[in-house]
Amino acid sequence: MDSNSGSTAPNTPEFWATVVAFAKSTTTEVGAQLLKDFGQMQAQEKEDGSLVTPSDQWADLALREAIALQFPSHGVLSEEVAHVFPATDWCWVIDPIDGTTNFTQGIPLWAISLGLLYQGTPVFGCIYLPTLNQHFHGFWSAPNQANGSFLNDRPIKTRADAPGSNQFFSFCARSIKYFRHPFPCKIRMLGSSCYNFLTVAAGITLGSVEATPKIWDIAGVWPIAQAAGATWITLDGQTLFPLTVGKNYGQQAYPTLVVSRSQWVEQFLPFLKDLETP
Prior knowledge:
Blueprint: H1 13-37, E1 44-45, E2 51-52, H2 54-70, E3 75-78, E4 90-98, H3 100-105, E5 111-118, E6 121-129, E7 134-139, E8 148-151, E9 154-155, E10 168-170, E11 186-188, H4 193-201, E12 207-210, H5 215-218, H6 221-228, E13 231-234, E14 256-259, H7 265-268
Parallel strand pairs: 3-4, 10-11, 10-12
Antiparallel strand pairs: 1-2, 4-5, 5-6, 6-7, 7-8, 8-9, 12-14, 13-14
Helix pairs in contact: 1-2, 4-6
């Protein structure tokens, strides 16, 4: 027995099977309750301008308690409570509701995000969209586990098309002010950071930009996008990973561009140059 997983030694096929099963079942259970609250909750504004509801707080606690029970020696970093990165080899990063504004207003694009970090770098992600019944998961450089990204257990990969007027690109609300014509793709704004990035991984969009994502917006989707073939760029030059033990990530933002193919980076960057400096 190894305390990292409760009953399964880490870095084995059995360990990773346990991780996947746990992530899917836990997000499904939490999502079932959140669906009952969907469109019914009043939100309060936090210091950073983002919103929080009692549903966010409940889901954050439920996820932390489930992790503590199944993986008692793993650390946790969460949007609503635990902002300081712990001194543990394994750490879960939680976003209980990514897209809280959508959630409160009855727009069915919001997600529950879990990222599992090993020595400060995400190696597994699981993101669940309850309204769509879509589970995304993926592995990237996980010890003794092949890379791969999946939507409801079917492999996904980025789109091979060149930028064009019939291809999509996703902006966030805080980055749309940098939009300048003529942009090489059709613009969409979805209202969920991790889902914006997932659309690139799933071959729906050619690119996505987020002006102020936090680490909990990134940790779950990062390994999924990487394994699907996406290119991930921090627009202010920050190094994303590994995270630093003892650092408080509550106010740290990472302006980010994700594109389907590395050759399109230089085509999109000129439209985002104002996002490149903090």
